[in-house]
Amino acid sequence: MSIRARAFKTDWEPSSVATGDYVITGYVAEPTFSPLPGTYATPQNVTLACAADGAVIHYTTDGSDPTENSPVYESPIAVTSGMSIRARAFKTEWMPSAVLTGNYIITGTVDAPLFSPSPGTFTMPQEVKLSSASSGASVYYTTDGSDPSESSRFYTAAISISSTTTIRAKAFKEDWMPSPESVGTYTIIETVATPVFSPSPGTYVTHREAELTCATSDAVIYYTTDGSDPTEDSIAYTSSIPVSETTTIRAKAFKTDWISSNTETGTYIITGTLEPPVLSLSSDVYTAPQTVELSCSTPEAVIRYTTDESDPTEDSPVYSSPISVDQTMTIRAKAFRADWASSDTETGHYIITQIESPDSGGGCFIGTFF
Questions:
Q1: Peptide bond before 119: cis, by omega within 30 degrees of 0?
Q2: For 327-354, what is each residue's pLDDT tens digit?
Q3: How buried is 334 (Cβ within 10 angstroms: 0-12 exposed, 13-18 middle, 19+ buried)?
């Protein structure tokens, strides 16, 4: 607005004209931020703008209010970490704008998950733990080869690995860039189960058929009977092994890409049947008392006998010294030994008679004593 004024007074000359021009400008528009203040996972380039033509924006990043002596905004401001930008627009003959503040939080990228134990080759199942150095991060993982996302399995406890497995893991945190993907392959080289013998190794009276089994599916059992350790060049077990004499079998199971089993050793002792006792005196009629000795050709055999016509058992008397036969007697003898089949029963029949002398006053006769 332009105001022109002049003064008048009676009998006076009027004054000259005074002119006053008034320009009402107002306040400069507030600056704007782009992108808007907030939390970002990556560095930002912040652009300042003002809707007022000809306005100059001054800004600070030290928390102070901007003045016309503060830096002039000319190009985007690089924000690589947390930063507070305060901006104000100035224009000649205009009131400065209000101070506008923009707070930017730059979080960054979550640290990649770590594996414990470290991926590698193992001979037994593992319990794998996942962690991220970024506090508050959540770890998600897959074991099917797909890339993990926040829709994948959420890690809460150690992962049980019993066979070769590849774990892919990624850590996430609100307002942060997801971590790089961590990949860990755990190769489990298992040990084949030790072969099992049936029947169990031990002492047997008669022929055995030794069978070998292994709890690990698809394992192949190899064995030897010459005392050497089995290898994959040894005899492959395909059917029961006949054992008709004392034999030591050594067996080991193998499977491709597995650690071979321990060697299992089984000794089968086949004893057999004891030889029957031998009576030193043949069955016959004798005219005088006799002594009968018993013996057995099998070492460590125990001979038991009876004189009452019954078959000897392990409860019958043990033969330890010659048996006196002073009257008609039947001796039955049998040999026993632990882990052996008892012998057949050997029998001796002894008839004791006596010839009476003519001088005895009686007739000559033969007497049989029972």
A1: no
A2: 999 999 999 999 899 999 999 999 999 7
A3: buried
Give the number of other Cβ atoms within 10 Å of residue 100's Cβ. 20
Nearest residue to 105 via CA among 74, 83, 75, 129: 83
Three-class SS state of 246: coil
| Paired strand residues for 78 | 45
**DSSP per-residue string spanning 136-191:** T-EEEEESSSPPP-TTSEEP-SPEEE-S-EEEEEEEE-TTSBPPPPEEEEEEE-PB
Pairing state between β 202-204 and 264-270: parallel
Reported as half-sphere exposure (CB side, CA atoms, 13 A), residue 232 has a value of 8
The pLDDT assigned to 368 comes to 46
Identity at 77, one-letter amino acid code: I
pTM of the full structure: 0.53
Name the residue among 161, 168, 170 with its Cα closest to residue 146.
168
DSSP 8-state class, residue 173:
-
DSSP 205: S
Which residues lie below 8 Å from residue 194, measured CB to CB, with a gap of 6+? 214, 253, 261, 262, 264
3-class SS shares of the chain: helix, strand, coil, % to 5: 0, 45, 55
* Sequence-distant (≥ 6) Cβ neighbours of residue 108 within 8 angstroms: 41, 42, 176, 177
Per the DSSP assignment, residues forming a β-bridge with 348 are: 331
d(CA 332, CA 354): 24
